[in-house]
Amino acid sequence: MERDKLIFCYVMVAPALILTVGLGIYPMLASMVMSFQLYDLLQINAVGTPFVGFENYIAVFQDPRFVQTIVNTVLFTIIAVVVSIAMGLFLSQVINANFKGRAVLRTLVFVPWFVPPVVASAIWMWLLQTERSPINHALQSMGLIDTDIRFLTDPSTFGPFSIPMMAVAAVRVWNGLPVIIIFLLAGLQSIPKGLYEAAEIDGASIMQKFWFVTLPMLRPVMSVLLALLVMNGLGQFEINYIMTRGGPQNLTNIMAVYSYQQAFMFFRFDYAAAASGVILLMTSVVCIFYVRAQSKDTLR
Length: 300
Fold this sequence. Notes:
One of its GO terms (cellular component) is plasma membrane. Keywords: Cell membrane, Membrane, Transmembrane, Transmembrane helix, Transport. Helix content is 72%, strand content 1%. The protein is mainly α. It has one domain (35-117, 170-299): MetI-like (MetI-like fold, Orthogonal Bundle). A two-stranded antiparallel ribbon has the order 1-2. α1 (2-34) packs across α14 (269-299) and α4 packs antiparallel against α11. The radius of gyration is 23 Å and the shape is globular.
């Protein structure tokens, strides 16, 4: 009986396992192997794919564009994660409260969840067009600006930041915010109300209850959410590629877009694989720290 139960469980898991191996693990391993080979499609018939060791990694790190994409990726991830967490904490608290019209507000907040990133990028590209942007029109009508803001094409920078980077990060935040709110809302609803009542009896203010009750109780959810957001940010692709193609002047280019460009524009699959290997390494570091932190919490 026990043996039949185990066989049934393995049969149920097998389709998902096969898909994971075929569409996830195998391509990842094949890409890692490719990163140590000369894999130039323009020369592959003549020279093949010889082993070159770390030459591809050295080549991409000697490319100033790739170094800039690393900086862009880290900045993009920090901006998206910080703003998403801050807005998620605020909106989840609002949605968790009891007030008239809460259902309508929840619907409006969760609308971006039903919009695929490709569609969201196309919508926001229209909203952020320099000449026809309704946002520019509204700002000019209120007298806040005199000339149109070039949201996606302004090459000027403010230290490491630029208007196009902030615009693309804002779209990423808008598109991913509902998932964050759901995580935090689930965490908020699991907090015992007695803790807030005890804090209120002790004379705690709203901010004190948030700082000493809400945040500590949301720590498990926040740690999972933070790890997922950082890994997703480091591997972000579609919004940056669709909206700006990495421009202007490489200001919004990130590592995943750089990898795509090397593979499908310059046919250097070896450089693309090396760039992807760097992404894998960075996300693996985040994953290791997360697993270690979770293991310590479990042992306590």
